[in-house]
Amino acid sequence: MENAPGVPRSTRRPLVTLVVPFLSEFRRTFYETLERDLDAQGISLVVAHGDPYSQDQRTRADAIRMDRAVRLPQRSVRIAGRPFVHKRLGTLARTSDVLVVDQALRNLELYPLLVRQLAGSGPAIAMWDHGRTYHRPQSAVEQSLKFALTRQARWFFAYTDSGVRAVTDNGFPAGRATAVQNAIDTTALARAYEGVTEEQVAELRELHGLQAGRTGLYVGALSPNKRIPFLLDAAEEIARRLPGFKLLVAGTGQHKHLVAEAAARGRAVVWVGQAFGDDKALLGAASDVLLMPASVGLGVVDSFVLRCPMVTTGTPWHGPEFDYLEHGRNAVVTPDDPESFVDGVVGLLSAPERLAALRAECVRDTPRYTVEEMSRRFTEGLVRLLAETGPREGVPRSAPGWSRMYRRRAGTPSHGRGTPRTRP
Q1: Confidence of residue 169 (pLDDT cuts 50, 70, 90)
Q2: In a domain, 416, yes or no
Q3: How far is 4 from 227, CA to CA, in rounded Å?
Q4: Please, which residues have CB within 8 angstroms of residue 295's CB and are 6 or more apart in sequence?
Q5: Three-state DSSP class for residue 182
Q6: Residue 157 phi, psi dihedral angles, 5° rounding
Q7: What is the average per-residue pLDDT within 388-402?
Q8: Looking at the structure, do residues 57 and 170 belong to the same domain, yes or no?
Q9: Where in the sequence is the domain holding 304, given as residue range(s)?
């Protein structure tokens, strides 16, 4: 297979190792697509991962195994209430041409790698992450340390354009930053959505007592930063003002007991557990709006594909994907208080023409945010980085794809309808 354009010819293929905290279901297709795209450029990929290190990550229950990924030995400690994690990279630290790591002060394995890079004896270090801290306040010291760490990387892959601006405004070279346009597998979800039938929607509505035009949906982690109590109280008030309204809640996490209690009352909340693929598509087909009062992230892309405009608040603690929303065009963004949020939902559900207009914009935006485009941008940045650094000499490695040697060492197992429906 031909080497990537601009990458020096070598007796072996360059190797990129992508080091992630843990493997999540929503990233599976991205890893597979990135492997194919890099392979087409003559570059091999290893995805290496640790394990969930916090209670919130563990209770989300979305960690997976992939038999073509490398599970790294890991130790974690808490210092002054903050987690610090060390993943043992083993020979990957010596054989990789590029190591892509997340932009986090907690990654203890990163610091010796940066020293080696400075000395010219290790792989090139690239970082992939938000660009700045979005979900919580951060002290000036923390911010300074994070940006100082980021400036040591050879390349930065930001989730969105605002992440690129954050790092370049703080001294990172603009020519070495890529906005990858973070996404989920919209192609598969859109296919599943189009495959949902009218009969399936009718069955779901009958099962849970749902009404067309008065159904909300929440899909995501039931974590404290998602403000689940706010969401549940809002659902109760919306149902009081719009009789027949119900909120479908799909997910699990630390606050699942609150959702279970609200569902047991039987007034406004229906908890359906976790939902992926076909199940998520069916929930979206039966819903009218997607409600997420805080920490908006990739749920934005769900709302586009499922044609359920998002209603959220103007809290400053959203994720970078909040960039994709435009109030009044493809979403409703209310002031950050419960009354305004409820007013926003009730107003939208009471205005069918306005809801249809927002839904049409969601349809238009869906093709913009895809795993395929995300992988293309990621690949382009890696090709440019390798063109500058070149593969490291004296490290023979020729097998394409994720290394079988590492797979054996890791020993990780794999985890792995009717009449067409019409919808406005």
Answers
A1: very high
A2: no
A3: 46
A4: 135, 223, 225, 226, 227, 317, 318, 319
A5: coil
A6: -110, 105
A7: 54
A8: yes
A9: 186-368
